[in-house]
Backbone:
């Protein structure tokens, strides 16, 4: 570990969620820590269980549900409660990782030497399109110049994790599937999802090989269960804490997920990860570590990507996700497992439905 200068400086990061955004911001917090900062992080209850497994992060758990969705009085009480925890602390850096200016009220009483939030009016504080959010959080929080950077930042794995609460595997290989997700406290983002019917077909094809299928997701994903009722899968939906999801991913031979929180949790493991993308650009989100592949549907579409960082196009049919067939996913899965079995290097990359050559990406 890099020696830390003394006395320590202090940084406050404000980011309630979503899970993927928080995981992509952790490497920037780690870089600050290695520069001598003590890290306080204002987070929501949902992600606090994961952040608590980074012992160098002090979590300040806010009532994000009340702040975002509560009545006027509930919001006021929750914000005042947060102010009482942070208002008198002398910070060197206060970073509110949101674009919406309404979030400024959360840090209104804080007087920090450097205070920032995301802004689309300033290149310095914008997550620039086409760049991975992890690298952009590092650039913004560390006030780095916007110049040549030839190596991307890898995810930062928690320092300690609980054991995986699953029995020994029941098949020749164990594959994790994430058929739900793409939702948070404020909205559903169903255009990100690969059709659940495709996950079911994929599961059946892999079960026919004698492999085990583990379903991953949160309590809000219980709606997918009936789709898998006729096949034998290991159902872990809604049964795991966030740290346990990472531990279960460690026991898998490969995880397949569309752009949702468990994709980023799988990115914290060393397990091969196949991400399925359409309306979002995989180059900005796929974890940039070995054996991480983004399969990007919608090849040739004029509307791809349609996500602007806040909203999607008013699309009634996410054809970009439907363009990715089960057969194409299996071909990429087999390629990745073959590379792993041979001990080959496999840098992160983006591939496409037409089976053309993968984009050239730097090995991490």
Residues:
């Amino acid at each position: 570990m890099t020696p830390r200068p003394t006395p320590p400086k202090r940084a406050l990061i404000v980011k309630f969620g979503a899970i993927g955004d928080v995981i992509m911001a952790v490497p920037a917090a780690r870089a600050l820590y290695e520069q001598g900062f003590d890290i306080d992080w204002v987070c929501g209850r949902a992600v606090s269980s994961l952040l608590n497994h980074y012992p160098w992060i002090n979590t300040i758990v806010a009532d994000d549900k009340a702040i975002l969705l509560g009545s006027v009085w509930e919001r006021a009480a929750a914000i005042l409660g947060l102010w009482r925890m942070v208002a008198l602390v002398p910070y060197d850096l206060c970073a509110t990782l949101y674009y919406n200016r309404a979030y400024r009220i959360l840090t209104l009483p804080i007087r920090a030497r450097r205070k920032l939030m995301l802004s689309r009016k300033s290149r310095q504080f914008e997550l620039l399109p086409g760049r991975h959010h992890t690298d952009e959080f590092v650039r913004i929080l560390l006030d780095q110049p916007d110049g040549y950077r030839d190596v991307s930042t890898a995810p930062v794995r928690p320092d300690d994790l609980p054991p995986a609460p699953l029995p020994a595997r029941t098949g020749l290989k164990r594959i994790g599937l994430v058929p739900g997700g793409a939702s948070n406290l404020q909205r559903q983002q169903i255009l990100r999802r690969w059709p659940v019917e495709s996950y079911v077909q994929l599961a059946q094809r892999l079960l026919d090989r004698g492999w085990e299928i583990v379903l991953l997701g949160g309590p809000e994903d219980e709606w997918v269960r009936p789709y898998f009722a006729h096949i034998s899968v290991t159902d872990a939906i809604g049964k795991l804490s966030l740290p346990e999801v990472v531990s279960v991913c460690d026991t898998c031979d490969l995880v397949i997920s569309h752009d949702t929180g468990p994709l980023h949790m799988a990115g914290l493991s060393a397990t091969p990860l196949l991400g399925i993308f359409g309306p979002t650009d995989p180059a900005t989100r796929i974890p940039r570590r070995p054996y991480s592949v983004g399969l990007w549907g919608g090849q040739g579409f004029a509307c791809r990507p349609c996500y602007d960082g806040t909203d999607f196009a008013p699309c009634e049919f996410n054809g970009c996700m439907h363009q990715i067939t089960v057969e194409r996913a299996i071909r990429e899965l087999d390629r990745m497992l073959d590379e792993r079995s041979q001990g080959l290097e496999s840098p992160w990359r983006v591939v496409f439905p037409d089976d053309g050559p993968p984009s050239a990406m730097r090995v991490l």
Remarks:
- The longest helix spans residues 19-34.
- Residues 130 and 284 are 6 Å apart (CA to CA).
- The two ends are 19 Å apart (CA to CA).
- Residues 357-364 have pLDDT under 50 and may be disordered.
